[in-house]
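ingest -> validate -> predict -> emit
validate: passed (alphabet ok, no gaps, 352 aa)
predict: started
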Amino acid sequence: MNPAAPRPHAVAELLERSRELTTPALREAVARLAPPMDTVGAYHFGWIDAEGRPAEGDSGKAVRPALALLSAEAAGAAPEVGVPGAVAVELVHNFSLLHDDLMDGDEQRRHRDTVWKVHGPAQAILVGDALFALAGEIILDGDDSIAARGARRLASASRQLIDGQAQDIAFEHRERVSVDECLTMEGNKTGALLAFAASIGAVLGGADDALADALDTYGRHLGLAFQAVDDLLGIWGDPRSTGKLTWSDLRQRKKSLPVVAAMAAEGPAAARLTALLTADAKKSREEFEDFDEEEFAARAALIEEAGGRQWTADEARRRYETAIGALDAVPLPLDTRDRLTALADFVVVRSK
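emit:
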């Protein structure tokens, strides 16, 4: 089974519902932060501009909170039951974005300057740390026994996410990374948090571990599909859609799936690419930043010629199919299953 073109109205309504239910609670959570972190956090989420004026910035795709709400419905609960989980997953996700932008030197996110660029590196670190701590508080505000189950899942997902980020950074200066190592890294960095998002609503709704674990599996493989698509967009995405520079991942020397799959292939394109990227790994950041567009374009062409682009697209489909298959292991309301499938379609068939 291949992912179908997502049903645009159904998915748009699902994501809009997620924003409507989650954003007020998320704003309340961020408002708990001490000044100026509350203001910096509001800027990061797109609620105000750099001068502190109200803004309607792009707050992201809202896939993770949508999963948390659907997860609650999968357990037979109202979607509102999943709101604390949706808020927690958004807080942890944005903690990682604040730190990632600083570590990667990214100056733009969602078509505007990143927090470290506007408010400085120290505030980016502090606000990221504060969002991470706040996520745990939000989960622990609930019923003791249920909150403990949710907090354990949040702690495990957060640790894996941080492991994945550490692996991602370490890979940048390694000459070779295997496909299995890359998949492990991406399973940690992206899959773990989507697994949490897809299961936390069910946990908060009182579901047993069988249902929560099946949804966790769905989310984990959906996360790997999501990251595979992100990796494609990180090289070949249109900057007008992604909000990032052309050849974004190549500029950062990321050993993403298209890169490692191409390097693992045989043939002259793979050999030439490997020679170039091996030399790149030894260059300083300053030397690397002197590259022109043609040099990045040449590397992207070699990745495609060696088969890395197609392999990654196929991997996204494989992970999508595994995610959908996990839903068959447990009884689910038919409309909830349909929405989980539509959301998975959206994740794999997208341009940003």
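The chain has one domain: 8-348.
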